[in-house]
């Protein structure tokens, strides 16, 4: 029988963002003195409130991870703090999982392929039971969410505000935690697109039209107006043919679509954008879930 732990405070989105950026810095995704996306660009790309990113950046600067140059940008500190304790603790919990029933996690996304891919990836990485769910189907799972069946609800920053709103409406004060993942590819995509010259043509080739359009909207919301966007998906192969015919300077594609594009053109640069879960996000999820199970055990004892 699952123990319901009433946790009155949700994990603020800016805290989740801050902690995952810290780990990206420690693992060299963003090396010392490297420019980070501006608050507006990152907020737009992830589709979260700009104040959320500014708060995360302000706390990172206070902690010595980044520094800002007024009117220029935000950069990784030349010598950021060494923080290994949080990751070490997450690894320590991994060996204790056998003492518990397998945690159950709900992974929420906007389209079926992405929800399934993320769920399988997280299940393999953690050993948890991870069930995929579409945002539009959340209300159908209202009773199981309210009963505490799920130890955690996970989504991406792209959807976290929407998912939190739905969960709050369904569960009220007993709402479960919602954690957002920051795929490494999100930051790398912004960086690559920023480097393109003005007027560059960028093809967006998605497995589904919805996924491709979501990525297009993220680029638009990030304010990267210097590039011309072309969109296509494997659901409509003619749209992919049209992208190739337009001779883009870069195509951002999922790995599923890439072989099709390469058959059409061997020379067009392709950047794989699978939005796979980063190791940082997986550790963050593990640390929270196992800590929660530890709290439940102490209450039972």
Automatic annotation (TrEMBL):
CDD domains: WHTH_GntR (cd07377)
PANTHER family per UniProt: HTH-TYPE TRANSCRIPTIONAL REGULATORY PROTEIN GABR
Residue ranges constituting the HTH gntR-type domain according to the UniProt record: 11-79
Cofactors, names only: pyridoxal 5'-phosphate
Keyword entries, A-Z: Aminotransferase, DNA-binding, Pyridoxal phosphate, Transcription, Transcription regulation, Transferase
Organism, as annotated: Brevibacillus choshinensis
Keyword Transferase: yes
Domain of life: Bacteria
Keyword match Transcription: yes
PROSITE patterns per record: HTH_GNTR (PS50949)
The protein, known as: GntR family transcriptional regulator
Residues in coiled coil: none
